[in-house]
Amino acid sequence: MESLAINKKGAKVKTIKHTADSRGTAFFGWLHSRHTFSFGRYYDPERINFGALRVINDDIVEPGMGFGTHPHDNMEIISIPLKGALEHKDSTGSIEVINTGDVQIMSAGYGLTHSEYNHSKAEKVNFLQIWVLPKQKDIEPRYEQITFDPADRKNQLQTVVAPDDDQALWINQDAWFTLSDLDAGKSINYNAHKNGNGIYTFLIEGEANVNGEHLNKRDAIGITEAESLSIEASKNAQLLIIEVPMINSPF
Predict the structure, then answer these.
(1) What is the pLDDT confidence band of residue 251, given thresholds at 50, 70 and 90?
(2) Could you say which of 72, 155, 199, 233 is the most buried, measured as most Cβ atoms within 10 Å of its Cβ?
(3) What is the pLDDT of residue 96?
């Protein structure tokens, strides 16, 4: 669902809403995945990307199962566990466990291989895997993860990925990832970091209104040419805000 408005500077503000039940589905027994954008066997020409934001996969992996070694190149790949833990290994030599509360980024650069498995043999893992088109092509592949304190996003904004913040994971793009946990009735404003960027808000849990648009669990809304967002939680809400350049190709 799309809508148009005019901002204070006369630019067209475009809003697109993606409801949770409109996402693509993949089920392979060991993996249950919902795709916000076209991915794998799911293809919708109207849902290829939101600017540099190319993929949001909401993955549930059965105990002990996972993605075997496979290649990537020229993509910024962010993983955010929502429940459980991931076991990660890649060709840069990184061998890590990514727990709930951690955020991981992998710059695929000129090319690498990696694998991801559910670290538990008893419990399912649920994580968001997000791809962002890079700013610079063929950089040295790199890996990083940080454990973030949930208290620092309680009724406030917590930056977890940024090109210019020493407290966040570095990304090879003019993009920012922000988390916020809002109590019911609380509101917050998000101000864009860079003119012309789009802002994509993904509601992980709860209910919230973003610029007056109501979102339920796993709904999302993308807004372009907006200088800021107003967010109000109608129930306790967990949000992921992704700000990206509105490009179709980085090169």
Answers:
(1) very low
(2) 199
(3) 95
Q: For residues 5 and 186, what is the distance between their CA atoms, to the nearest angstrom?
A: 26
Prediction pTM value: 0.94
Model pLDDT for residues 143-166, shown as the tens digit of each residue = 999 999 999 999 999 999 999 999
Beta bridge partners of 205: 238
- CA 169, CA 107: separation in Å to the nearest integer? 11
Nearest Cα residue to 195 out of 56, 11, 5, 6: 11
CB neighbour class for 59 (10 Å; exposed up to 12, middle 13-18, buried from 19) = buried
Which of 5-19, 181-195, 199-213 shows the lowest per-residue confidence on average (mean pLDDT)? 5-19
The domain ranges of the chain are 2-245
Does domain 2-245 fall under CATH 2.60.120.10? My reply is: yes
- Sign (positive or negative) of CA dihedral 164, 87, 75, 79: negative
> CA torsion, points 128, 76, 24, 31, in degrees to nearest 10?
-50
Which residues have C-beta within 8 Å of that of residue 214, sequence separation ≥ 6? 207, 208, 234
Residue 188 tokens, joined: 């917050």
What is d(CA 76, CA 245) in angstroms, rounded to the nearest whole number? 14
Q: Residue 6: is its pLDDT beyond 70?
A: no
* pLDDT in the model for residue 250: 46
Token output for 3: 């809508």
- CA 165 to chain CA centroid, Å, is 18
First-to-final CA distance of the chain? 29
